[in-house]
Amino acid sequence: MSFNKPKIVILGAGYAGLTTTRRLLQKLSPEQAEIILVNKHNYHYESTWLHEVAAGTINPNQARVMISDVINPTKVRLVFDAVKRIDKDEQRVILENSELEYDYLVVALGFESNDFGIKGMAEHAFAIEDIETSRLISEHIEYQFAKYQSGEEVDEHSLNILVGGAGFTGIEFVGELAERIPQLCKKYDIDRSKVRIINVEAAPSILPMFDKELVAYAKKSLEDRGVEIKIGAPISECTPEGFIVGEDKELIKAGTIVWTGGVKGSSVLGESGFELVKGKVNVNSDLRMPEEENIFVMGDCSWVWNKEEDRPYPPTAQLAMQEADVVAKNLVALLNNEPLTDFVFESKGTVASLGLSDGIGSIFNDYKLKGKAAAAMKKVVDNRSLFLIGGPKLVLKKGKFRPF
Questions:
Q1: How far apart are CA 174 and CA 388, in angstroms?
Q2: Using one digit for the tens of pLDDT, what is the confidence trace for 252-271?
Q3: Would you give the distance in Å from CA 357 to the centre of its chain?
Q4: Burial bucket for residue 305 (CB in 10 Å: 0-12, 13-18, 19+)
Q5: Which class is 116-261+347-404 in CATH?
Q6: Is 288 in contact with 158 (CB distance < 8 Å)?
Q7: Which residues lie across from 87 on neighbouring strands?
Q8: Is 69 exposed, middle or buried (0-12, 13-18, 19+ CB in 10 A)?
Q9: Bridge-partner residues for 219, per DSSP?
Q10: Distance CA 269, CA 58 (A)
Q11: Who's near 255: CB < 8 A, 6+ residues apart?
């Protein structure tokens, strides 16, 4: 360990990494530690808004926040580079263009799509992973409409949009598509009946994190707006034409294929030889990696165990931001040779959007919300996230205030 000022290196400027950095700035003076934030891009993006970028209902720039707007670069060393590998033995991070030594490391590198080995999925389906992949989906959908209108050689399935997975991302995405497709039909003078939005899910229900009443409401709301939901339909293969599903091997054809059926932690974890369980690190109650006193793993890169229910907490933005509070507190404790704090998650509830003016939610000890009330609460949640990252100035600049 260095005998100079301790180096705290934070990998990733998502919800977990950015919030940890901000908390450390509040708790530490520049003399106590050097804080280094590493991120591939010079911006943070609201990952819970990516489904809107992918559907084309918001501009990519609305979901993007310049890091230097919320982190003072005179107080934190900002390094914009891709992380390749972590060398725990040497306490080094190998980047694409340089290397960094650390005394304390925070791994918050976010998620990658997990196709669970489904044949052809990685090759033929889009995935909602970041700003660029989401923007590509939106552009591809519109390109299909433009091509169809121009009279180019297209088949009857080219306007279909096929979405694999009916968890949070998949359902919120098709909810946005239900808003976007009528707009595109009007723009390109195409009959709405020519376009199918098809959501395919292997499980017997959608949105497993909600109760049956809210799930039934969400399913009916989406179907009433033209979304086809196929549950109990496992995908055995993805081809250039679409999904092969179910026991009868039905081929569902589409011009746009999107996989939203699962995520895993950054591939850097595996490249660095970390012990993984389903693509993530099982961390201790203080959020450190087992047998590593100076490495914290957060957000989509880790499993944090809910001892009461004997299962990990689902990875959400609120979980990542609450983890950040504890990690920052524990880093200060390590610097001061004080006892560390165990992480305790306090759920603020869960809200899913079903488009601009519809949604479902469970808040304040299972108080249920539906329709416009849930949609309004979703905007409150999104704006609160902005506030925690950048204060009222960021909320005024990027916040969601659009009426229904």
A1: 28
A2: 999 999 999 989 999 999 99
A3: 22
A4: middle
A5: alpha beta
A6: no
A7: 92
A8: middle
A9: none
A10: 32
A11: 144, 154, 157, 158, 159, 160, 161
| pLDDT < 50: residue spans in the chain | 1-2
Q: Tens digit of pLDDT for each residue in 306-319?
A: 888 888 998 899 99
- With tokens 């939203």, the residue in question is 260
For residue 63, which amino acid is it?
A: A
Size of the chain in residues: 404
> Which of 46, 52, 172, 176 is an active site residue?
172
Assigned CATH topology for domain 7-40+81-113+263-345? FAD/NAD(P)-binding domain (3.50.50)
Q: Coil, strand, or helix at residue 359?
A: strand
CA distances from 73 to 51, 158, 252 (A): 30, 47, 50
First to last CA, the chain: 55
CA 335 – CA 342 distance, rounded (Å): 17
CATH 3.50.50.100 segments of the chain: 7-40+81-113+263-345, 116-261+347-404
Catalytic annotation present for 172: yes
| Spatial contact of 190 and 145, defined as CB atoms under 8 Å apart | yes
